[in-house]
Design brief:
Blueprint (H helix, E strand, L loop, with lengths): L5 H13 L8 H8 L3 H18 L2 E6 L5 E6 L3 H15 L5 E2 L3 E2 L2 H4 L2 H14 L7 E5 L4 H11 L3 E4 L10 E8 L4 E8 L8 E9 L3 H11 L4 E11 L13 E10 L4 E6 L5
């Protein structure tokens, strides 16, 4: 039991809730932890709730009854999300990102925890009200984004492998078509990694025609699992709608053109922003 001044208690309670999104915390836990009356704890939570809602951190839900408590649902405001996406687009338009073959270098952005955390908060906001059991991505570049999203939703992350690892036991493998050349690839998922009938949120760093994500969708069928949603950091706008294999998804940025000769890259906001 800690005896803290109210100001210190508010700070510690706020940190506790931020570190445990989507987790129901009984009021008795805080009352016992600080040796305070439930009425005092309720007043503290009202203050925290007001601050969270004003600065766009999220919604602090209160559940009444013996099994009740409080739960933080991260919700990044549309204004904050828009500012992040505009900054992302500007960074993606840097000419030195163009690689031979017209590819776009994104690894530095994917390696920035702050950037991935913000993207994860947006996806957690978009899919906060859906019933989801796990977050899924395919190795390797989408991993930071998947873990950032999983942390905000307080959900485990499942990684689909391009090559089966012996250390993961028996696995289900499927072939899928990906890339502009429509080449055939293989992906696999350990049978132990995903319980049957799971509800899965798929996230990925980049989507062109959607072949890789469609491969994950097909793989989920083998586990009797369902797709609860798809989130993509950057989508390619150079693909004709009729050629796209996936249509139900949320993107934060749209790569519309890459000109290797003029070193020009054009990126606009993704479909999340209308």
């Amino acid at each position: 039991m800690k005896k803290l001044k109210r100001s210190a208690r508010l700070v510690e309670m706020t940190q506790f809730l931020l570190a445990r999104p989507h987790t129901l915390v009984p009021l008795t836990y805080f009352a016992d932890r600080y040796g305070a009356a439930k009425s005092s704890i309720s007043e503290d939570l009202s203050i925290i709730k007001e601050v969270f809602e004003e600065d766009g951190t999220g919604e602090l839900q209160t559940l009444a009854g013996a099994a009740g408590g409080v739960k933080l649902i991260p919700r990044l405001s549309k204004e904050h999300a828009l500012a992040f996406a505009q900054s992302l687009c500007k960074q993606l338009e840097q000419p030195d990102r163009i690689l031979p073959g017209g590819y776009l270098y994104m690894s530095d952005l994917l390696g920035q925890p702050a950037t991935m955390n913000e993207a994860g908060k947006i996806f957690a906001t978009v899919f906060a009200d859906r019933a989801i059991d796990v977050v899924m991505t395919v190795e390797t570049k989408g991993i930071p984004l998947a873990y950032a999203t999983g942390a905000q939703l307080n959900l485990p992350v499942v990684l689909v492998r391009r090559d089966h690892q012996v250390t993961e036991g028996s696995a289900v493998s499927i072939n899928y078509v990906s890339g502009s050349q429509k080449s055939l690839h293989t992906m696999s998922l350990s049978r132990r990694a995903l319980p049957e009938k799971s509800r899965v949120l798929i996230v990925d760093d980049f989507m062109k025609a959607g072949g890789t994500i469609q491969g994950m969708v097909d793989l989920l069928i083998e586990f009797n699992a369902t797709v609860a949603g798809v989130g993509v950091l950057v989508e390619s706008g150079e693909i004709d709608t009729n050629e796209r294999l996936l249509h139900d998804y949320v993107s934060l940025a749209n790569l519309t053109a890459v000109d290797s000769k003029s070193k020009q890259i054009k990126v606009k906001l993704g479909n999340y922003f209308g």
